[in-house]
C-alpha cells in the first residue's frame, strides 16, 4: 500500500510539472536616453515589448531611462558590472575606455546605414563587434540607426577654410577632433544647454542629429544655415547584454531576445526616416529662410585628409581597431559600386 501511494505521488508530481507555468525571466535595461527622446527611447521600448510578446510572457524587461539611473554615459560599466542586464546606448561613447568600440556607431566618410547593416549581418561586422566587446564581458548588437546625420546648424555661411578659423562649435567625438585640426574651437555642451548657448553666442554652430530630433531643439530659429552630413553617415545605436545573464537564459529565449533586438533596431531606422521627412516639411514651411548647404570641395578635402591622418595615427597603436576599420574599408569597396548604381543613380536621374 505504501509503495502504491509513493507511485501515485510521483505520477502527480510529473503530471503537475507538465502543466506548470513556464518560468518568467525578469531583466532590467538602462538607457542613455530620457523617456521622451524619440526615436531612440522607442527602440528600447519596442524591443522590450517584442521580447515579451515573442516569448509569450517568459521575458519581461524593465526599462530605466537616464533620468532614473542618472548615468547616461555609464551604461557599459553598469551592464558589465551586473547592475543592469541590458543597455541601450551608442558604441562611440566608449572610445575613451576602448578605442576599438568607435567604428560600430559610425565613421566619417564611412558606410551608409543600409551598407552598414549589410556589413554587420553579412560582412563580418557583427563577429568583430563581439570580439571587441568580449573583453568587457558583454554582447553587443546593432540597436537602431539615425542614418545620415546632418553636418550642423551655422549662424553664418561657411565658404572657405578661413571661415572655420576660431569658429566655436559643439561637435563631439571623432568629428570634433577632425574639426579641431581645421581650426575650429570645439566644445561639448550638455543637450539641455545647447539652445541657450547658440542664442547667447556662446557658440557659433552646433551639430545634433537631423530634422526629426533637431526640430524639438529649435536651432533652426537662430542659425539658418543647415549643412549636409559627412561625419556620421550611419549612426547606429547598440543593445548591450551581460554575458553571464545571457548564458543563463534557455536557448529559445536567447533566440527570442536577439530576434526582438534585430526587429526593434531596423524599425527605429525606418521610423526615424519617416520622422525626418515630416520634420523637414514642417521646418521649411515655418522657416523658409533655412538654407541647406554643402561644404565646399576644399573644406571636404581638408576634412578627409584630417580623417585619414587621425585614423592612421590611431590604427598604428591599435591592431584590433585596424582590423575593424580594414573590414569596413574592404566592405565599402565591395558595396559602394552597387550603392552608386542603384540608389544614387536612381535618385539622380529621377529628381522631381
From TrEMBL:
Na(+) binds at residue 208. One of its GO terms (molecular function) is metal ion binding. Keywords: Metal-binding, Signal. It comes from Candidatus Marinarcus aquaticus. The keyword Lipoprotein does not apply. InterPro entries: DctP_fam (IPR018389), SBP_TakP-like (IPR026289), TRAP_DctP_sf (IPR038404). Residues 1-20 form the signal peptide. This is ABC transporter substrate-binding protein. It comes from the Bacteria. Pfam families: DctP. PANTHER family: EXTRACYTOPLASMIC SOLUTE RECEPTOR PROTEIN, PTHR33376. One of its GO terms (biological process) is transmembrane transport. Substrate binds at residues 149, 170, 207, 232. GO terms for cellular component: tripartite ATP-independent periplasmic transporter complex.
